[in-house]
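Appendix B, example 12.
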Amino acid sequence: MILPIVAYGAEILRKVCSDITPDYPNLDKLLADMWETMYSSNGVGLAAPQINKDIRLFILDSAQIFEGQDEDEKGEYPDEPGIKGVFINAHITGFTGNEWSYNEGCLSIPKIREDVMRPLKVTLEYLDENFVPHTDTFTGITARIIQHEYDHIEGKLFIDYLKPLKKKMLKGKLTDISKGKIKVDYKMVFPK
């Protein structure tokens, strides 16, 4: 089932989320719905707060980015061909590598894209969909998506990394999003 995406301005997008246990109700269905929602919205990642759940859960499919690359772009990022994964109760344990800029967007903040600086590599502890624990280091585009989605479960948004002047320039667009004065080709729910 395709779920509505929570729009910028909703309180849940600013909430630090809680860990879950293996007996979380209907987790398999929730994950299936999140994958369907993400793909139908043309996203590469989706965090639980974006579908109005205040739990530490996000999914990503960075392989989509590499599948769509032109031949001359191949080999540009160290994490090629990308991954598809579920991250439950994730906690970042460290960052390494130089920060680099990449143009980010967010399903909860449609039609706004901005360059954001993030470290090249991120290490995190997390559980997969079977609640098997992992500690892995990710790099490149995959690391960036993980950091973006991780921010969601920490109550942060990519626009928080922008300089004050840039945020001021976006204020009108952000207000329009929060008031539902925007057209997108996926289901959204706007703050009341």
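The chain has four helices and seven strands. The helical segments are 27-40, 63-67, 140-153, 164-178.
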